[in-house]
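Ops channel
N.P.: pipeline sanity check, posting one input/output pair.
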């Protein structure tokens, strides 16, 4: 494989022309023109993943009918790797590449095209010349019938809505493009213009969103001391049921449910999602683990710090909404308790460390199976918890003078602005220690690199709170299985580590047929009147054959946490609480 670095002074001119003759069938036709070629051979490449979503997705699999020509002469293309095409360019100064991309995967990280609109996630649309990641390109869009609007963070050329410019491929691959009839509105804060592109309709209140999203932006900007953008774009895809988000350098993509905006819980959830993805414009897009840039678009980019990049951002999304006083402190404390409950009910929290969870994101986080609950943790959920502990520890240690905000601001200035590079594991830990004025070796050993059970109340008591398990005195039995109904049959979908089902051999994909001779038609109430230690005879259908299992019920070890206030708070506890929750 040949890699050629092109001198900017003699750089080829690169143009893309996008047309949608069969948008209803989910296709975009791409014509790529490269002028000013001086090298004897060229490799054309397509990224295999998209930054922010840590899974090799093999985008080249959606490409059809790729051809190359120079004038009227066809040029032979040879595929030399899953995402690379090689061709000879001896005597050729201008080249035209034509290819089709099939786009029919609804998510915030993949392209989707139909007659209503086109969402173009750039890494799975644009082939690029090897060695030319630093080169600019111009994108010309011919919209499908009825499409009127383009929303993106890329700059428009000569105020032409359908002609865009990218200074390099890193920015192009970090700038999704929405083309259609989306409802566009915006606001300005701190000299930065914000655009919100609503796709798919919804019962949202524009004026309320503009006001509340502006407050989120302002609060997050306060943490870092600056907003590095001139303009920023929220692309929001509203579906019947949808979720998720993906951050970009100067934009983000949000998945929302179109009819949930009028519901206060749904509205709060949307604001939290917006706060999360917007917070990423600092944390991970600029303040980043050292492995995450410059990107290798051909392979996995490994880091043990996604618990900071994503987990800290998950922490801030909730605390930011609390800080701007949209909801009472109890709402945030409820979110926190739910987060801890979710983590502690996952047996994998005793198996996989945060650092391992981050590193193995490429093979585990986005490829869960029936046993993932037993063997993995989420670096979002557990990272959120660790950020909480660190914030309270720093506030307490510094007697309210400092917080996790100061760590984020220091690291942003030190590594993004001054050193202009990412941070290492050790450097982020040093940043925490510098702000807190204490050593965090034991903390990292236990909670980042180890699986030591978290001492939640040690940290919560700093702010006058305690964690209470509502199920602590329960003696209810449990099988320890998850089930789904398929074709009228009750099928085991998961088995929890250490549960009765785990110990006595119930398997995923078993069909539950009978318990103690009684046919099972629903799982509701099947353990009524039972207690831990009771023995059951369970008949399952495994691979078409009946199997009888003797199962001894065990106590349900699930937890359900809530946060309660301690009695007789000290002035310091009150001060820390006020600092933490911005009361």
């Amino acid at each position: 494989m040949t890699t050629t670095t092109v001198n900017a002074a003699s750089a080829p001119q690169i143009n893309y022309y996008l047309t949608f003759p069969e948008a209803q069938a989910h296709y975009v036709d791409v014509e790529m023109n490269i002028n000013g070629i001086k090298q004897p051979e060229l490799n054309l490449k397509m990224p295999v993943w998209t930054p922010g979503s840590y899974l090799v997705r093999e985008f080249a699999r959606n490409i059809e009918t790729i051809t190359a020509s120079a004038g009227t002469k066809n040029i032979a293309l040879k595929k030399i790797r899953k995402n690379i095409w090689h061709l000879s360019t001896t005597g050729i100064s201008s080249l035209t590449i034509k290819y089709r991309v099939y786009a029919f995967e609804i998510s915030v990280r993949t392209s989707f095209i139909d007659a209503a609109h086109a969402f173009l996630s750039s890494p799975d649309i644009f082939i690029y010349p090897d060695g030319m990641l630093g080169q600019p390109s111009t994108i010309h869009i011919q919209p499908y019938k009825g499409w009127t609007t383009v929303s993106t963070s890329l700059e428009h050329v000569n105020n032409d809505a359908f002609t865009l410019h990218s200074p390099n491929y890193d920015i192009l691959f970090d700038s999704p493009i929405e083309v259609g009839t989306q409802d566009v509105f915006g606001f300005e804060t701190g000299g930065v213009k914000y655009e919100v592109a609503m796709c798919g309709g919804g019962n949202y209140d524009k004026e309320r969103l503009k006001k509340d999203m502006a407050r989120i932006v302002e609060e997050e900007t306060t943490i870092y001391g600056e907003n590095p953008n001139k303009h920023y774009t929220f692309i929001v895809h509203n579906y019947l049921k949808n979720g998720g988000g993906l951050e970009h350098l100067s934009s983000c993509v949000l998945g929302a449910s179109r009819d949930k905006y009028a519901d206060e819980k749904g509205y709060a959830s949307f604001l939290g999602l917006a706060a999360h993805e917007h917070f990423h414009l600092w944390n991970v897009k600029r303040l980043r683990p050292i492995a995450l840039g410059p990107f290798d678009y051909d392979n996995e980019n490994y880091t043990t710090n996604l618990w900071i990049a994503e987990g800290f951002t998950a922490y801030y999304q909730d605390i930011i909404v609390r800080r701007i006083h949209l909801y009472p402190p109890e709402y945030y404390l409820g979110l926190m308790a739910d987060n801890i409950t979710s983590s502690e009910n996952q047996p994998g929290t005793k198996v996989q460390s945060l650092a391992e969870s981050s590193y193995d994101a490429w093979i585990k986080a986005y490829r869960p199976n029936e046993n993932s609950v037993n063997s993995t943790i989420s670096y979002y959920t557990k990272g959120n918890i660790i950020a909480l502990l660190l914030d309270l520890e720093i506030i307490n240690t510094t007697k309210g003078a400092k917080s996790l905000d100061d760590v984020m601001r220091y690291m942003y200035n030190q590594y993004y602005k001054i050193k202009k590079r990412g941070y290492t594991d050790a450097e982020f830990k040093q940043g925490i220690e510098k702000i807190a004025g204490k050593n965090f070796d034991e903390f990292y050993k236990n909670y980042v690199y180890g699986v030591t059970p978290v001492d939640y109340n040690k940290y919560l008591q700093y702010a006058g709170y305690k964690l209470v398990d509502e199920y602590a005195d329960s003696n209810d039995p449990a099988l320890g299985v998850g089930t789904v109904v398929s074709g009228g049959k009750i099928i085991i979908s998961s088995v929890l580590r250490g549960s009765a089902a785990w110990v006595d051999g119930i398997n995923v994909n078993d069909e539950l047929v009978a318990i103690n001779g009684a046919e099972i038609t629903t799982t509701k109430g099947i353990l009524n009147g039972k207690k831990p230690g009771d023995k059951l005879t369970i008949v399952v259908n495994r691979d078409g054959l009946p199997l009888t299992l003797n199962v001894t019920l065990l106590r349900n070890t699930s937890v359900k946490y809530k946060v309660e206030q301690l009695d007789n708070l000290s002035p310091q506890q009150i001060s820390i609480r006020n600092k933490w929750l911005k009361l």
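N.P.: looks fine end to end. Residues 1-8 have pLDDT under 50 and may be disordered.
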